Amino acid sequence: MLPETEIIERARYCYLVFFQLSHLQKLNLADPFQYLQILKKSSLQLAGDEFIVATIQEEICQGNPDGGLSYLIALYEGFVHAYCETAEKTLPEIRDVIPGDYLGQLAAEMVPD
Question: Is the dihedral of CA 101, 25, 49, 5 positive or negative?
Answer without folding.
Answer: positive
